[in-house]
Amino acid sequence: MLLLIPSCFAENVEIMVSSSAIFNPKNGHYYEFVAERELTWPEAKRSAESRTLVTKDGEKLRGYLATLTEEQEQALLDQHFLTDPTVHTDVWLGASDEKVDDEWRWVTGPEGKKDGGKGVIFFKNGVANGYANWRPKEPNNSGGIEKFMQWNHYLREGDIAGTWNDQPIDKSGSKGFFVEYGGM
Asked: What structural domains does the chain harbor?
């Protein structure tokens, strides 16, 4: 079941483990889809980082825009979040090539702290260096302004559900994001 939770940009949102957070037994992380009003990538990043998940054991895990570093992580999100036909939005993830063109890095979460705080490179000059799930012919930096990653949920002609696309910082129609909890 997909539970849509508006965050309204509240500061320090704390949620309890519930049906809205999906657990990944492979890495011990939780994932949550947050439905929003239309928002920019930096707004999604701030909102994700303001969230805390409290586990059943009382452990508090800080949120961040999700980083999908393995096919298993991608499959988990696909399984739980692609099944709701009422959701018509693209979803922000924690990757960017804003600092160096065509050098895609995970810039949030524990991956974002690596390489001196620049993040983990996973795709450079059209070649994957780790797991990547780009939509065909992406990333393409259309108009020279697409520097932030989205997960395609709302399908248009030619889209493949769950694939990634590069988008401008303020892509219209972006009304959600994935929060990952764990590893921080």
From this structure: 32-52+63-181 (3.10.100.10)
